[in-house]
Amino acid sequence: MNASLLALAEAVAREAGELLLSRRLTSEITVASTKSSPTDVVTAMDMAAESLIRTRLLAARPSDAVLGEEGGSTSGSSSVTWVVDPLDGTVNYLYDLPSWSVSIAAEVSGSAVAGVVVCPPLGEVWTAVRGGGAFLNGSPLVASSVSRLDQALVGTGFSYEPKRRALQAELLTSVLPLVRDVRRIGSAAVDLCSVAAGRLDAFYESGLNRWDSSAGLLIATEAGAVSFGYQGDAPDRRLTAVAARGVAEPLRDLLDTHAAPVVDHVTASEA
Fold first, then answer.
1. CATH superfamily of 2-140
2. For the sheet containing 111-119, what is the strand order?
3. Is 0.90 surpassed by the pTM of this model?
4. Per-residue pLDDT tens for 26-49?
C-alpha cells in the first residue's frame, strides 16, 4: 500500500508544483492574508495549490483524512491521513527565490509511511516510503558521514512571531560558534531533504507543524539521518531536529542544553 500512496502523493505534488511554478512565472504574486504576524504571509497560490491537492487526493481516496496548512483538518474513515503543505517557503515564492516546495506525506496511525517533497524551480523531487530508502529524482540518497560537530553545516529556521524569533536568535548564538556554519534556506521541507542528500549535515527548528516536517522527516531518516526532539522525545512542535549519525549526539546535547527558552515559549503559547 505504501508504494501506491507514494505514487499518488508524487503525482499530485508534481501537479501542484507545476501550477505554482506556472503562476510564479506569468503572474504578479501578491499577499492574500497574514497568519501569526504581518510578516507571516499567505498568497492566493498557497490556497489554490491546497485546493488542488485536496481535490485530487480525495477523488482518488475519498475515505482518507486530510490535514493541510491552509484548509485545516477534515476527517476520514480510513487509517490514512494526508499531511499537506501546499507551499512551504511562501516568502521565498513571493520574492522569486528558488527554495520553495510542495510537501505531501501519507500517515498511518500518526506515522508517515510515504512522503514526497517537490521543489519545482530546481526540478527536484524527493521521495521515500517507510523501510524503502530515500531518493532524489530516482537516485538513492545517503546522509552525510561527518563525524565532528565543528565540521557540520547546520540548517535552521525562524518563526514569524517576534518573541519566538528573538529566542531562536539567542539559541543560534549558542550553536553557531560550535559548528562549521549555519544556513537559513527558508523551507523546512527543503532543509530536511537537504540533510538526506548531505547538502546539510543537520537541521533543527522549534515551532514546526506536522505539515512542515512529516514528509521531510521520513525522507531524511530513510537516508540514514537521525531524528530527535527535545530532551529525548520524538520530534514535535517544541523541537524538530535531524542530523547525520556522526553528529546527532553532540547536536542533541547542545540543543538540550540551550533550547529551553524557545521550547518553553512554544509550549506556553500553545497551552
1. Fructose-1,6-Bisphosphatase, subunit A, domain 1 (3.30.540.10)
2. 72-74, 65-68, 80-88, 101-108, 111-119, 124-129, 134-136, 139-140
3. yes
4. 655 665 555 555 544 467 788 899
The amino acid at 38: P
Look-up of cell digits 487526493:
57
Count of positions (residues) in the chain: 271
Q: What is the rounded distance in angstroms from the CA atom of residue 191 to the CA atom of residue 56?
A: 26
- CATH fold group of domain 149-269: D-Maltodextrin-Binding Protein; domain 2 (3.40.190)
121 grid coordinates = 524551480
Inter-residue contact 137 to 125 (CB < 8 Å): yes
- For residue 72, the cross-strand partners are 68
pLDDT in tens, 161-216: 999 999 999 999 999 999 999 999 999 999 999 999 999 999 999 999 999 999 99
Residue 113 cell numbers, joined: 509511511
Distance CA 257, CA 178 (A): 13
